[in-house]
Amino acid sequence: MKTESMSMTNPVRGPGLFALLREDVRCVFGRDPAARTVWEVLTTYPGVHAVMSHRIAHALWRRGWRYPGRLVSFLARVFTNVDIHPGAQIGRRFFIDHGAGVVVGETAEIGDDVTLYHGVTLGGTTWNPGKRHPTLGDHVVVGAGAKILGAITIGSRVRVGANSVVVKNVPADRTVVGIPAKVVKRESPILSATDELNLDHHVMPDPVGHTLNCLLDRIKMLESELATLQAEGKAALAAASAPPKPVQTVFPLINANPLDCQANTDAACPECACQPEAQEAR
User: Fold this and answer.
1) What pLDDT, in 10s, does the model give residues 79-96?
2) Residue 274 confidence class, pLDDT cut points 50, 70, 90
3) Which of 7, 26, 145, 250 supports an S-S bond with 119, CB 3.0-4.6 Å?
4) Are residues 129 and 252 in the same domain?
5) Where residue 96 sits, what CATH number does that domain have?
6) Which residue windows are coiled coil (predicted)?
7) What's the first-to-final CA gap in the chain, in angstroms?
8) Across all residues in the chain, what is the average pLDDT?
9) Does residue 10 lie within any of the structural domains?
10) What pLDDT does residue 6 have?
11) Burial 198-237 (b: 16+ CB within 10 A, else e)
12) Residues 19-29: tens digit of each pLDDT
């Protein structure tokens, strides 16, 4: 995307069909190190076959030839095990790796340079007509088995962890994991200006482990301060003149700022589990 805000690729003013198909084939070499030749990609990659079939089916669908579009989509599903509705709007350089069990609904919108792995579903949550499937921004990577459900917006450069279930909007430059998916990492941006795609979606942080480490560090700090106060109290009692007077030790307030993770706020530690609720992507 040319702006940080979500801006879907215009399906009408884009390049021609054959130009899109060439880009779909060429982008494979940047995202799958196993790809060796164009002929190999054209003849053995079911994900590429599914995308190429969708380009044709979508062109028929836009021209009002609904049944031929559905028929092409059906035949593609039979041969590739990838089910993409011909009404779905898909941007440039779209890649489905492994191409097994992927489902893309009718009103789904997908930006440029998006990568889906096997088992991904872009599904709806209602039987009502109208917009009911998700919108994905540019450079989004969706891990194997992930489900993105409903008319929600996934911002640019978002990474969705494998087997996650996303049911809320996700702002740009976030990593989400879990059921339901929660933001576990915030970077701005995940991609640098010269990067085309970031496939490090498997490098997921451990927010629960990090939170526990923060708690352990805080406990150690409190124990250390308590031991210091106890030693000072004993020294004060020993130094008291006879007859001994009760010594009232005043315990100062513990400074919580050094290890305060600002849980559930925008200032939260980006590695902790206590992240703020994802706001609507704009």
Assistant:
1) 999 999 999 999 888 999
2) low
3) 145
4) no
5) 2.160.10.10
6) 212-239
7) 13
8) 79
9) no
10) 44
11) beebeebeebeebbeebeeebeeeeeeeeeeeeeeeeeee
12) 888 888 888 88
Surface-to-core class of residue 109, CB atoms within 10 Å of its CB (0-12 exposed, 13-18 middle, 19+ buried)? buried
What is the total count of domains within the chain? 2
Q: What is the DSSP string of the chain?
A: --SSS--PPPSSSS--HHHHHHHHHHTHHHH-TT---HHHHHHH-HHHHHHHHHHHHHHHHHTT-HHHHHHHHHHHHHHHSEEE-TT-EE-SS-EESS--SEEE-TT-EE-TT-EE-TT-EEE-S-SSSSS-S-EE-TT-EE-TT-EEESS-EE-TT-EE-TT-EE-S-B-SSEEEETTTTEEEEE-S-SS-TT-S---GGG----HHHHHHHHHHHHHHHHHHHHHHHHHHHHHHHHHSPSSPPPP-PPPPPP--GGG---TTSTTS-TTSS-PPPPPPP-
